[in-house]
């Protein structure tokens, strides 16, 4: 007997210490739209404890969930790596992020392609990796902040 089918990913969930700050990051600097009608509110107080955002180009849905303990635990972790076509696209993303005051890495050489890294408001790493590739090479760029060796 085989397992029942899975259609794909429904949504991803990212923890945050501040919904407002993380929401602003994803909707101002990345192409996401806040789906206000799906805000998660506590029944009695009406306090928002989660918001839903949707990537405008792929329709990927992410929940930003207020969970400061988990957000602190995931500082430096890269839960999502976005895909772009070329190394030049990474350079364009770098230029965009820098123009918005977002600190990010230079375009770094990975084992088969290139990567760009920035931090979100909780200190989680947001990465972009390009489909353009080079031959497998273990002599990759290292950077203790953006690509730690451990």
Characterization of this structure:
The protein has 150 residues and is an alpha+beta fold. The chain has two domains: 1-73, Signal recognition particle alu RNA binding heterodimer, srp9/1; 75-150, 2,3-Dihydroxybiphenyl 1,2-Dioxygenase, domain 1, CATH 3.10.180. Helix content is 19%, strand content 29%. The chain is built from three helices and nine strands, in the order βαββββαβαβββ. The chain has helices at 19-28, 68-73, 87-99; strands at 12-16, 32-34, 40-41, 48-55, 61-66, 80-84, 108-109, 114-119, 125-130. Strands 1, 2, 3, 4 and 5 form a five-stranded mixed sheet that branches. It has a four-stranded mixed sheet with strand order 6-9-8-7, covered by helices on one side. The longest helix is centred in the middle third of the chain and has 13 residues, at 87-99. It starts with 11 loop residues before the first strand and ends in a 20-residue tail after the last strand. 21% of the residues are buried. It comes from Rhodocollybia butyracea. Residues 8-131 form the VOC domain. It holds the Pfam family Glyoxalase. GO terms for molecular function: dioxygenase activity. This is Glyoxalase/Bleomycin resistance protein/Dihydroxybiphenyl dioxygenase.
